[in-house]
Specification:
The structure is a homodimer of 333-residue chains. Chain A is α/β, with parallel strands linked by helices. The first copy, chain A, has 11 helices and 17 strands. In chain A, the strands form 5 sheets. An 8-stranded mixed β-sheet of chain A has the order 10-11-7-12-6-13-14-17, with helices on both faces. In chain A, strands 3-4-5 form a 3-stranded mixed β-sheet, covered by helices on one side. Chain A has a two-stranded antiparallel ribbon with strand order 1-2.
């Protein structure tokens, strides 16, 4: 007789359309009952529309029929909402206080770093009025959606992404909403999106210390914060506001990242500190957290982001960041 | 007999402490009655604390006694609130949608440009959670304040500045407020600050299209918007959201400014487009407004901002910006 484990393994090969992750990774398998040659599988329907349910039924039936010893397969769907199925081990918020320091970039690079180490990763784009994650990763198109919730859209390396820009008619439509509505959207992105099993959910916060970060830090079980800044003194001052906010709300800052540290001029073989001298050590000290990296301004990275191909990026500074970050996170596991 | 005009002229030499602009420019002169050698002056007390009222009384008395033909001077204060005394000809909002593109820098440079042309100028720093204007202009210290309102703080070239950072205990204290409170603060900065007579009030908006810009565009009689962007494609997309917001709220965009257009490398005598190729013409087209300038990344400007000495800045690109801007504004007068 075939074992439920074997069946589950086979279900692990069935990918949910759109999000491109398996039924198992999306936590959509409720029950597997094996009775002789008869197999009863119950899946959850959270965030899965009717058409996709039918498609999944057919696809699972086909996979099971290919297995030895199975004569009859019954597939049912049980009601569920994403909130009850999500198992997210760590939520890491990328914060800054200051705009344009590269929070979205660091969010993307952090998610990619963890994904390259084999972790299951998602990105919740909490920058409702200025979302840039979808463009950077080249994802577009409406997320899968049912009455019970939404599915993230998968990046080419398999990072699940949810962003308001995926839900807009045109990517440059403006969201002219007041704070409470923005807070509500972020909460929805957490509760009504089927993230499934994730090792890390990276949250890209908008600048400032108002509604979006407040809601996030109050409503989501954030496990750690990474603070992003640039060398400018002026930036450091505004960024320290975010540090103080994190401290006042008793959320641990796990590291700081200096972005736009310098520009390397190949013709001169020299680094130019175009935004001023680095304050990285000082920032690490005032945040009480390690410096995870100093990322240069890299025109090739700018171009990849504009083309939606950030996942192709490699550089010495980025490799160093990946190493420091993963070492730190493993030490916390 | 001395004429009221002569008296008013003399009052134009009496500077209000802190804001360093005259009683006349601050619209604080209510009445001048000349009766033979007897002079009756009534000033408004809006935003002027008791101590300063006494000081002003003494100072005005002294100036008047120096004038020929005056035997007796009577100085009284009448109740008033800033809202009723402010005469602001033009409000120009600096917007972007995207953070870190240099809205504050362009706000500062725009105010300086108009000031250098001899206009009376103020800056309302509406970036409540990430204010950077005071640092850039090197102003600090508590604004003058009474029950009826507040006085801006004067920059070295005489630009009146109001920012939440002037009101904080430490400049890196975080403002952890939800949207409605932020909107309320911006309204207060408009209604309860004695701006006096201004040709231009420049409003530095925070990134995004949520509470702060919404409040500003709904509650203040904004005469025009300047949109700031950088060459990155990704930025252009987010900035177009601000353009759409302005259009949806029927506020005229008077011009667009590209910041961080390029970096000039003196050793190579060449311009590097480190954030990608310029989209300036495209942005001007989509905003339906002229391109006012393309400002480079200038390490000397970064340093001046960090030192609080932005008003000392000069460069070819900035001179070109000043010329285009003033020509445009004069054409609208």
């Amino acid at each position: 007789m075939i074992s439920p484990e074997k069946v589950k393994e086979a279900l692990g090969t069935v990918l949910v359309p759109g999000v491109e992750r398996s039924l198992v990774k999306m936590n959509l398998v409720k029950d597997i009952v094996v009775n002789g040659g008869k197999l009863d599988i119950t899946l959850y329907n959270a965030a899965i529309m009717k058409d996709t349910q039918e498609w999944l039924k057919a696809r699972v039936g086909q996979v099971m029929k290919d297995m030895d010893g199975i004569i009859e397969v019954q597939i049912n769907f049980a009601d569920a909402v994403p909130k009850d199925l999500n198992k997210v081990k760590n939520i890491i918020a990328i914060m800054s206080g200051k705009g344009g320091v590269g929070k979205s970039l660091v969010s993307g690079l952090t998610a990619m770093a963890l994904r390259r180490q084999g972790y299951e990763v998602g990105i919740l784009d909490a920058d409702i009025t200025g979302p840039s994650i979808p463009r950077m990763f080249g994802v577009s198109g409406l997320p899968g959606m049912s009455e019970s919730g939404m599915l993230p859209v998968a990046s080419s390396s398999g990072i699940g992404i949810m962003s308001i820009n995926l839900l807009l008619h045109a990517e440059d439509d403006a969201i002219i909403w007041r704070g409470p509505l923005i807070g509500q959207t972020i909460t929805q992105f957490w509760e009504e999106v089927l993230w499934g099993n994730l090792d890390y959910l990276i949250v890209d916060l908008p600048p400032g210390t108002s509604d979006a970060p407040l809601t996030l830090l109050q409503k989501l079980p954030v496990s750690g914060i990474i603070i992003v800044f640039t060398p400018q003194d002026l930036t450091a001052m505004v960024v320290r506001k975010a540090v103080k906010m994190a401290q006042q709300m008793s959320k641990p800052i796990i590291g700081v990242v200096e972005n736009m540290s310098y520009l390397y001029i190949p013709e001169l073989k020299k680094k130019m500190e175009i935004f001023g001298k680095s304050h990285a050590d000082e920032m690490a000290l005032s945040a009480g957290a390690p410096l995870l990296g100093q990322l240069p301004i890299d025109p090739s990275l700018v171009a990849l982001c504009d083309e939606g191909k950030v996942e192709r990026y490699n550089s010495e500074a980025y490799t160093a960041y990946i190493q420091k970050l993963t070492k730190l996170l493993i030490s916390k596991e």
